[in-house]
Write a structure and sequence with these properties.
35% of the residues lie in helices and 19% in strands. It contains 16 helices and 18 strands. The chain has helices at 2-13, 26-34, 84-101, 107-116, 138-141, 143-159, 177-186, 190-195, 205-214, 299-308, 311-315, 324-340, 385-395, 407-414, 416-424, 429-443, and strands at residues 105-106, 166-171, 196-201, 217-218, 227-229, 234-239, 251-256, 265-270, 273-281, 287-291, 319-322, 342-351, 360-363, 366-368, 378-380, 383-384, 399-406, 466-473. The strands form three sheets. Strands 2, 3, 4, 5, 6, 7, 12, 16, 17 and 18 form a ten-stranded mixed sheet that branches. Strands 1, 8, 9, 10 and 11 form a five-stranded antiparallel sheet that branches. A three-stranded antiparallel sheet has the order 14-13-15. Strand 9 (273-281) and strand 10 (287-291) form a beta hairpin. The longest helix has 18 residues, at 84-101. The radius of gyration is 22 Å and the shape is globular.
Length: 483
């Protein structure tokens, strides 16, 4: 059944969903079919609600159409609180910055404080993922997502010549679900897992504890002894930034829904030219948007991005979003891969071109105003994949950038349909329903053409809205499945 579904999905997304038969990852396709017993424990896994809410404006209506963020698991959960005391402290802190400066702050400064303020940031002291949080990500939808990322990492490791020591880095690992599924699936390939030292780049103490549990870690990192994940007997370390991860070894970097949370600067075309959009305190003590009276430091990044764009593309836009931290992070990634070898996989929702006006706030699976109760909602923006590509290419001649391709093409070419068939053979009927739903959420393009359940529960997929891009060392050739 799923093979027929895969063929149809392939036709609809205009890309191959059935896996390629290159010798490079034939053994991993065999694994997809055979390892049907390697699955999450039902007691430890969370089944997302099957109803999605679509709030994506049609970007095809015009180049200046507003882009709304697609969060693939929006629904109405039980009401919960995110701590009004902390949020109140954050509001006071933001107003204090504006008052001390004597003027407004940038949208990027606001976004960074709201998400990662050490005391009251959205990500810092709570679990924001899953049905009881604020949004659901692909690893929470199905174990197959993490398993396919594992297949990609194993293929890249083989292309590197099977080195006996590799840094496997995940940026913003959330609950650790993706990595846990990756290790469970890869645990039978001992040469691969024995080569790994896992490095998690995480700023949240609360999420760090959850990751420790998800990865079934043993040992206390504060004791000076090595922490080991019992899932594959793999050493694990935590870091606040990518710069803290040791260099000198081939590195595989995974950035899934990480770039979208990096702070963006917003610019608006006015009669006097491009002005930066900023945030100030109004007379009624509420936050509101204003335009900068003169060029700001971030204008330098705007000028760089404009050099990469066509004049026709810019002429049609009245709003532009720029993410300096995405450019700087990509520089770091490309320099490391260029010198140490390896590759990076970036999967996120975004565009292969300039992003106009995509920044949105999501609280408890609902869209809310950006300035409403700062610290209680997730802020995220579309990823400018074209800027990521240019950023990587400008700093290192030793890397190649491949993609972006759709998530549907990426997962399909790695064999997700074969993996789904193998799991279905060992499922109960209830488990099979969740598996099929998860499959379509990952590879569907807004609808499931062969959905057999109730219409109101038809999953809205991420297959064409999420894009995958790879940055790899030139010496390793073209990575799977970007050939």
């Amino acid at each position: 059944m799923l093979r027929r579904l895969a063929v149809e999905a392939s036709r609809r997304c205009r890309g191959p969903l059935a896996p390629s038969r290159s010798p490079l990852h034939e053994s991993y396709l065999y694994w997809c079919r055979q390892c049907s017993t390697s699955s999450r424990s039902s007691a430890n896994s969370e089944t997302p609600d099957s109803t999605y809410v679509k709030q994506l404006e049609d970007s095809a209506s015009g180049p200046t159409a507003k882009i709304s963020i697609d969060r693939s698991g929006l629904y109405n959960p039980t009401e919960h609180s995110h701590g009004p005391v902390s949020d109140s402290e954050l509001v006071k802190h933001l107003k204090g910055i504006i008052k001390f400066r004597g003027g407004p702050i940038t949208v990027a400064e606001y976004m960074e404080e709201v998400l990662t303020n050490p005391k009251a940031g959205f990500y810092i002291n709570r679990d924001v993922f899953g049905a009881q949080g604020d949004f659901i990500t692909s690893p929470e939808v199905s174990q197959m997502f993490g398993e396919m990322i594992g297949v990609w990492a194993m293929c890249l490791w083989e292309q590197m010549g099977r080195p006996n020591k590799v840094n496997l880095v995940e940026l913003g690992p959330g609950r650790g679900t993706l990595l846990a599924d990756l290790l469970r699936g890869a645990s039978k390939i001992k040469n691969f897992t024995d080569s790994l030292h896992i490095h998690l780049v995480e700023c949240s103490p609360a999420l760090k504890k959850i990751q420790y549990s998800s990865l079934k870690c043993e040992g206390d990192e504060n004791s000076g002894k090595q922490v080991i994940s019992s899932l594959a007997e793999t050493p694990i370390s935590w870091h606040s930034t990518l710069d803290q991860v040791p260099t000198g070894f081939p590195t595989i970097i995974i950035a899934h829904e990480f770039y979208d949370a990096l702070p963006v600067h917003q610019f608006q075309r006015a009669s006097r030219g491009w002005c930066e959009k900023m945030i100030d305190v109004a007379e009624d003590s509420s936050f509101h948007f204003v335009l900068s009276p003169q060029p700001t430091p971030a204008t330098l990044y705007l000028m760089k991005r404009c050099k990469w764009a066509d004049d026709e593309e810019l002429a049609k836009l009245d709003h532009v979003e720029i993410c300096p931290k995405a450019i700087d992070l990509t520089h770091t990634i490309a320099e490391r891969i260029g010198s140490d070898g390896g590759g990076a996989l970036i999967i996120d929702y975004g565009l292969n071109g300039i992003v106009s006006d995509s920044l949105q706030a999501i609280r408890k699976h609902k869209f809310v105003h950006l300035l409403d109760n700062p610290g209680s909602a997730d802020l995220s923006a579309y990823v400018d994949f074209a800027a990521v590509r240019h950023s990587a290419e400008e700093v290192s001649e030793n890397v190649c950038v491949h993609g972006p391709i759709s998530q549907s093409q990426f997962l399909g070419s790695l064999g997700i349909n074969f993996r789904a068939e193998a799991l279905l053979e060992k499922c109960t009927e209830e488990e099979a329903e969740h598996l099929r739903t998860g499959y379509w959420r990952l590879v569907g393009e807004g609808e499931a053409p062969f959905w057999e359940g109730p219409d109101e529960q038809a999953p809205i997929g991420m297959g064409t809205r999420y894009l995958a891009m790879a940055i790899v060392n030139k010496n390793q050739g073209v990575p799977v499945p970007f050939q």
